[in-house]
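Homework help thread (please don't just give me the answer)

Our assignment gives two proteins as sequence + structure token strings and asks us to describe the second one. The first is just a warm-up. Here they are:
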Amino acid sequence: MPKLSVIMGVHNGAKTLKRAIDSILEQTYKDFEFVICDDCSDDNTKEILETYQKKDSRIVLAFNDTNMGLSASLNKCLELSKGQLIARMDDDDVSHPKRFERQLSFMNEHPEYSVVGTTRFVFDEEGVWGQVNYWGELSAIDIFKGKVFSHPTVVMRKEVLQEVGN
């Protein structure tokens, strides 16, 4: 059983999905499962996902019968996940190749932390146009002021998520 489960909800993500999936499958840390829930897409997202699943046994797919939204799709992924650690990913993002290697190293060395996030670069078709980073631990006041973890940079302990009702 992998220590890490990567979860992603997707709805009509065909334009950017391949790049996002490739950035996960090309991680230097390889022992993970990638649980993806298609939230009733009406583009060719389902076909893209099924093609990747045939190529890589780490991919676990789920499909919603009706559009349920991101939170419900992610909770479905959580139910299917087997890892002790949960990494988030979105269908329009790209992860650094050493993301999981570095984050799991930190989580293993620091069992007192429940969540870790990273700097993120903001980009579009033209390239990188910004960077968001917060150093050190975030306080409740930091979060209140809008300094929050970016979903696709987060790794968290599954047991803690379950303790707070996902």
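The one we have to describe:
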Amino acid sequence: AEALRAIHEVGFLHLDLKPNNVMIRADGSPALIDFGISKRTVVARYQEGLSYSMGSPYFMSPEQMRGESLDERRDIYSFGALWFRVFTGQVPFPGRTFEEIRSSREDLVAPSMGDALKHYQPIIDKTLAGARDQRLSTAQELIDSIDYHFGTATGVYRMPFFVERRKNRHDKAIGMHCPERRRSGYERIPDHALL
């Protein structure tokens, strides 16, 4: 999500977000790769009637399958499909052919993640909505939603990875890398805040 925010801020859409295009660095941070079919946002917004058949149909938004103009919500949809795949081990809309996958999305309701992952269902609902007007509109909204629902599920506020890494580098630079000399970056959510 942080990588999507970074590329959207400089005016690009990835258009092929899927598990094979996310690599994990040695320090555990994710890296978004393969920008082979990415487009400038301003171009994608005004191109219609084109076939965007490149990319993986399992992670492709309905508007991309229909050849409509695209915006940031297209990548947010793919993030939701990727999130669903990572947590459940399944693709959200199965099918053996492009047409089967496209027809399985005619139902505008997002798939269920099941009871064990119900705290994260709102993220799926807001990313895999068939109508793009019902999706989160920016990567920052996506990040905020993940942080909120992570806290609701665990009772712990999550410090965004890149903020945490920056803080750790700063702590080391000023000699605060010893656990007893620094405060934890995590704070418990008060029980009354979860009601």
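TA reply:
I won't write it for you, but here's a hint about the kind of observation we're looking for: The two ends are 27 Å apart (CA to CA).
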